[in-house]
Amino acid sequence: MSKSVLGLYDDPNQAADAMDALKEAGFAQGTFDVLTGTPYPEGAFGEHVPQHRLFRYPAFGAIIGFTLALFLTTATSIAYPLVTGGKPILSVFAMLVILYEMSMLSAVISTVVGIVIESRLPNVNPGVYDARITEGMIGVVITTEDDQADSAIAALNGAGAMEIKQA
Amino acid sequence: MASEALHTAGAHASSHEEEHHELPARVEPDVIASELIATTEANASGVRNWAWILGILSLVGIVSFGVKIGVEWGNQAEWGYTAAIVAFLFSAFGGAPLVAIAPTIAKANWVRPVARFAQLCSLVSIVISIWMIPMILNLPMLVVDGARRRSIWFEGPDVSPHVWAIVALTTLIICSVGLIWAYGMPDFAAMRDHGTGWKQRFGAWAARGWIGSTVQWRTMRLRIGMMGTFYFFTFVFVHFMLSTDFAMSLVPGWRDAIFPMYHAISSIQAGLAVTVIGIWAARKYLGLEKYLHLDQFWSIGRLMFAFTLLWGYFFISAFIVFWYGRSGSDQMWIDYLILGPYFWVFIGAVLLIWFTPWWWLIWNKVRRSYNGTAIGAGLILIGVFLDRVRLYVAAWSVPEDRIHERFLTEYPSTVYPDVFDILIMVGAVAASMLLVILATRVLPILSVWDVQQFNLLYRPVDYMKTKVSLIGKPD
């Protein structure tokens, strides 16, 4: 059975110490994290910075949209071959507006989907949390097995946690 | 912190004493959260009364809209003022988010307290989509009287401008909502944690379980950048479509490659102006002096001044081609859109978009004052409105049966607004303002997390014989 333990700190340095203490106590990177109400500079707490793949979503969406638009404009131009201004039936400049617009629409929609997925949202089981985090307090949260919870609590308290919460 | 910047905006040498202003004091994060969330409840400042007044005006506008649809349907010339107000609202409110996007991407610190309001302005694209209905339905088909009219849709089906305008506007609305949501998620969480009643429930729903973890903050920076970039690309594209399909292509002989850019540049100028007026009102009526400093007004004032000068550059760039071109269509452009039936509107626009703001905002003292910048912004907004009237009312008053002429030789006379036009325009502006005010009831008008980060990374420090802002820049 796993357990979520949260240590609350009002001093960022203490939260950074807590992260170090958890590392020294042998807890694996990725099992503990820091929760803040405002973004601190990356690595300020010595936290594990996970990789993301958010850039793939707009690129994938733009390719899909572009392909669909290319198909739409090409197919309709070939289906109704009207020569306009002496230009070729398949004129890139006449297609550009639609290519651009559909690429954008598809990229935007896929980015919104990517944001939801990459941000691990909706977070239906956020674990232990404290509303004071959005007031400036810093939480250090760890998810661990029941038998290791005491060790985690000791590490968090050792760094000067003003409160420990468990769930 | 990878680097730190010494920012000497607050104090220079004593010989420039008159340019000094107080450096902002640091505010504790819990105070920021409680004070900014309190603004969503604020009624002492009369927000509710304003909302009622704007709501009634919006309703009057919508009713007038319905009456006009019933009476004037199919008469293109009667919808010129609706087209003008749509173009104005899109220019002013649509341009505002760029005030937040560009400096945020450039990691400017001053923009933090301004970004939320600027982004909320993009919600007005929802109002625009409603007011655009008669424009789209009254826009001539591509084939008129058996012949294809001149447009950017060289080979498209008959309803191409209508359909793709809807698609473009839909993309813009998705970008707007996506940008506001992506940027606002931590503040929805703050509303969930500290709000009350339905706003707390709405915050919990919109926060989607936000807890401020490392991965959430890391992707947050990226999604703001991405959605902001998409907004910019869609914004310029909608300007391109609006200016070509709903203005230029309606006037035979009007061919101006600079016009879409002119449209977008004046929109950014108007967006800066709307942002200044918004933060000026927030500072004055919501008691946010602690968070909105001279630095924001001064920075936007400088940008506004730069775009005021750019307006002149873009206008002259277009004008000089027609002036020296001297062909029939070139002369038509000058005679109809400048010297013609809207000459005095044009003069008013030039004076208020360019000449007066130029000689007003040129002064450091003006740009470094709250009221001075707001006055400049007000002038610009009126000027941009007049400019849109000059362009769109003139374009929409060209009868459909003359759309195939090589260029206009006889100019339609001045179309004056009737009572419905006035109510529709007032209603559109009121609905836009109401939407922004209502949005500030569920999200604080200043971003809690961004203002907290401003304070986290900022220190007023002594530097030799003066005081400077020390700003940490992550990344």
Task: Walk me through the structure.
The complex is a heterodimer of chains A (167) and B (475). A four-stranded antiparallel β-sheet of chain A has the order 2-3-1-4, covered by helices on one side. Chain A has 167 residues and is α+β, with helices and mostly antiparallel strands. Chain A has helices at 12-24, 56-79, 92-118, 149-158; strands spanning 2-9, 32-35, 138-145, 163-166. In chain A, α2 (56-79) runs antiparallel to α3 (92-118). Chain B has 475 residues and is mainly alpha-helical. Chain B has one domain (3-473). Chain B is built from 18 helices and five strands. The chains are: A alpha+beta (167), B mainly alpha (475). Chains A and B meet through β2, α2 and α3 of A and α1, α8, α10 and α18 of B.
Provide the gyration radius of chain A in Å: 26 Å
Give the distance, in angstroms, between the N- and C-terminal Cα atoms of chain A.
Answer: 11 Å
Percentage of residues in strands of chain B: under 5%
Counting DSSP H or I runs of 4 or more residues, the number of helices of chain A is: 4
The secondary-structure element order of chain B is: EHHHHHHHEEHHHHHHHHHHHEE
Count of strand segments of chain B: 5
* Largest interface, Cβ cutoff 8 Å: A-B, 59 and 61 residues
CATH top-level class of the largest domain in chain A: Alpha Beta
Q: What pattern of helices and strands is seen along the backbone of chain A?
A: EHEHHEHE
Mean pLDDT score of chain B: 89
Oligomer: heterodimer
Secondary-structure-derived class of chain A? alpha+beta
Outline type of chain A: rod-shaped
Fraction in helix of chain A: 40-55%
How many β-strand runs of chain A?
Answer: 4
